[in-house]
Amino acid sequence: MLPLVFTVLILCSCFLNDGSCDLYDELRELKTEFDISLYQQLAELENRTNLIVAPASVALSLGLLQFGAQGNTFTQLENALGYNIHDPRVQEFLHAEYEDMTNSSQGPVVQLACALFVQAGGHLSPCFIDHMALWANSSLQKTNFSEPNRTASQINEWLTSNTEGGEADCIYLDTVDSPLNQMAVVSTMYFKSIWQEKFSFKDTQFLPFTTAEGITLEVPTMYQMAEVNYGQFHAPSLEQLSVVELPYLGERVSMFVVLPNDRRTSLSLLESHLSSNVITLWANSLKRMKMDVFLPRFRIQSRFDLKVVLPALGITDMFDPTKADFKGISDQGSLYISEAIHKAKIEVTEKGTKASGATAMVLLKRSRSPIFKADRPFLFFLRHTNTGSVLFIGRVTNPSE
Predict the structure, then answer these.
(1) Neighbours of 175 (CB within 10 A)
(2) Residues 357-368: pLDDT tens digits?
(3) Which residue of 22, 115, 145, 364 has the fewest CB atoms within a 10 Å radius of its CB?
């Protein structure tokens, strides 16, 4: 993938007929640009592998840190995220988005959380503690970094308690036993739902999937004939791609699957084409049609060291003990971020659906409908309909891994 140059977007004041601009629309666009920029950096590091990231979880952690940051540390966080967390309008917007995303009353389960693990014994700013208590699903945890095993257990217990059914895997911290450790940030996001138009277990077959290296695998492939939103588009370099939207129960969240039409087109080429405007264009331009849809089952879990990724987005000082400025968290000692770990997981199956009794092969022979067949590497993202927020974004290069 070509190197990404992160462009800082600045919110400017404007005056329309009613004396104000639509700040919420600007914030949504800024959030999506951050989501995509984060994904593009991770995709470049994890070339040709299955990948998933939950950008909203990372942004939640960085927003929390912005409350306690000062000086250049604050400026870097503000520039990367695109907003000032101290602005009451920004706080209102982010809280409303969080509440909307995590409202599971209409089907999808979205769990989003972050925790700040701080060395015990330090005096924390009462103002920061108040902010943290009100900041979405965040918590402040006292720990003792001189006891690495106990600290690791404490972090993993928190992860388990913030994942439905305790389905979290352990996180291993690389420098947890360092005597200089002062603070660790951990964030997690979990998604679970049922398809609006159900796949059937009995329609699933082992079908060919060809990897980027030209290796053909037989993988469990789900099938349905359904009315879906579908469109074909061209990337700037004229590569054609297909996009299909598969909504989850309640249609509050949809999975968009992006498939290059030419098997020789690399996913990195499509990834470099992603932007907030492109995703909005795709979502708004799809047309309703009846199609045969083939999608492999896949389960992806990714773990990232954000200390490697965030500097590419201009966030560097908070990891440097000589430059980090978190006096808004505590004025005693020089706090800096020793670990910044992000985990995301997703599983796409037929679970929770009813069987129809017909096989994909027979249905396909009877059908004259257009076909969307994800039998080669593809991109996907889960988009929240009301807010336009990208909950997850990733790629599948090998469904069997």
Answers:
(1) 13
(2) 222 233 333 345
(3) 22
